[in-house]
Specification:
Layout: H1 2-6, E1 12-16, H2 20-29, H3 36-42, E2 50-54, H4 60-69, E3 72-75, H5 77-83, H6 90-94, E4 99-102, H7 114-126, H8 134-141, H9 143-148, E5 166-169, H10 175-182, H11 187-197, E6 203-208, E7 211-215
Parallel strand pairs: 1-2, 2-3, 3-4
Antiparallel strand pairs: 5-6, 6-7
């Protein structure tokens, strides 16, 4: 808390309500607080640049605090599915203005690839009988992620003046992708092919600060 007050531009990144045992453990440590998130809120660790991974089992009151404080969620579908932690309520967050970015996790996530992360995210939302359109998914992996980090003024899309970190994609790196691509007409259909079938083979070139740092040899 002292560091956050001394350096208000610093980021706070931690877990929140990933599984039920974790929630009970926090309650045992802080019985005087209403909820897991209430502990962070009490110590003024919510708000801008506070990024909470997982957020699977939040109560309605906790969601309200997330909305009111401008806190962000790192949606980690590969980790959540691998550990059986539960299904992130994506539509509950997105439709109520909570900042959400796609995240690959490092502890239990099964891939660092954003295509595979989007693929798993689609399944998480689909299992709740809701939808994650491809265009919306790619937004969460780009400008939406920047928005969650309060960095959308400098990264996330190709607006003039923003930092030029980006990848160039080959959308038909495999025969299956080519087949699906050829049978897709609208842009959202083509993006859906990448969202569900894409992997590292689709990365044709990578630029950092406008400088080419990787080029595929295929």
């Amino acid at each position: 808390m002292a560091l956050r007050e001394e350096f208000p531009d610093a980021y706070v990144q931690t877990h929140l309500s990933e599984n039920l045992n974790e929630i009970e453990w926090v309650k045992s440590l802080y019985p005087e607080h209403d909820s897991y998130l209430d502990v962070y809120n009490h110590y003024r660790l919510t708000g801008e640049r506070s990024v909470y991974a997982h957020c699977i089992h939040l109560t309605d009151k906790e969601w309200q605090v997330m909305e009111e404080t401008g806190s962000s969620v790192a949606f980690c579908p590969t980790s959540n599915m691998y550990l059986g932690s539960g299904l992130f309520k994506y539509r509950r967050a997105a439709d109520n203005g909570v900042r959400v970015g796609m995240a690959t996790d490092v502890g239990a996530g099964t891939s660092f690839n954003m295509f595979e992360t989007l693929n798993e995210a689609y399944k998480v939302v689909q299992m709740q009988k809701e939808k994650l359109p491809a265009i919306e998914g790619f937004y969460r992996a780009t400008l939406g992620g920047a928005h969650a980090l309060y960095l959308d003024d400098s990264i996330g899309n190709f607006d003039i003046g923003k930092e030029a970190d980006f990848v160039v994609l080959d959308p038909v790196a495999t025969q299956v992708q080519q087949l699906r691509w050829d049978n897709s007409k609208a842009l959202d259909e083509k993006l859906f092919v990448l969202m569900t079938l894409g992997d590292d083979r689709n990365i044709y070139r990578t630029y950092v600060d406008g400088r080419l740092v990787y080029s595929s040899t295929r």
